[in-house]
Design a protein that fits this description.
- It is a single chain.
- By secondary structure, this protein is of the alpha/beta class.
- The protein is built from 10 helices and 11 strands.
- The structure holds NADP nicotinamide-adenine-dinucleotide phosphate.
Amino acid sequence: MQLLDGTSCSQQIRQEIAEQVEQLKASGKRAPHLAAVLVGHDGASQNYVGMKARDCDEVGFNSTVIRMEESVSEQELLDKIAELNADDEIDGFIVQLPLPDHMDEDKVILAIDPRKDVDGFCPENVGNMSLGLPTFLSATPNGIMELFRRYNIETEGKHCVVLGRSNIVGTPMAILLSRNTNPGNATVTIAHSRTKNLKELCASADILIVAIGKTEFVTADMVKEGAVVIDVGQTRVPDSSKKSGFRNVGDVDFDNVKDKCSYLTYVTGGVGPMTRASLLQNTLKAYQRR
Ligand code: NAP
């Protein structure tokens, strides 16, 4: 089994971006600027936004984190989004999900100017992705495609099972892999909580991508010998041996599955860092388009 090392792959991508930013600055241009809106105090969200800001520093981007209280009204958040849409100094921004229960996530995403939607969540960008038109690709699926690309993993003609159908991971992943591109050209099955014979279906996959948020759900009997397995899941579980008091656990039972796979990702050095690198790629793209 070969580990798909998202940490080193994303390091390479950051290096490539940093070189481009150096060139921009050397020619007298300003650096790309990413903003992140963080509502409330959810630990995982704070952590993700902090990492995204550090990534920006590393590649030479400007970054701004806008913190809003959990009690902020939906309208106040929409007003902030309108401000960011109009701000010429901001190339792209994200609204960190999930939002508090009193907010309608769809309404919030629809308010983002698609030209600044570097998460690739707006309908216009999702539509462009489906049609194979230039767009901001959703960061996690794009990061996984980049892993396939950089490790020369053949996807053409393979049976790929995507477990989970969320708008931000499972569904765009299935679309990207089924398109006539390289990587792509896979025969894709999307599975979810209503899928029957899930075990048999997963065990028939040449490539199994798991994004359900259920710790160690995929066991060895669900994996075909020689399969490529991508674990997107990231669930915090209490762990008193860690300084933080928790550790992240994936959706795949890594220890028992690893001997059956040809390639496998590890949580958290697999998909997570690639997602963050994709966000930087999208921000650079937003800057270049403007
Ligand atoms: P989500 O919105 O939480 O949806 C979960 C999906 O899994 C749904 O489609 C659901 O089916 C399906 N599902 C749940 N239980 C299932 C079961 N027992 N059998 C089959 N399908 C089941 O998904 P998400 O936002 O994509 O997140 C999934 C996981 O990925 C989470 O752990 C999240 O933290 C992680 N994540 C990681 C990254 C990263 O960068 N590493 C990025 C995004 C998400 P139904 O549609 O039928 O309900």
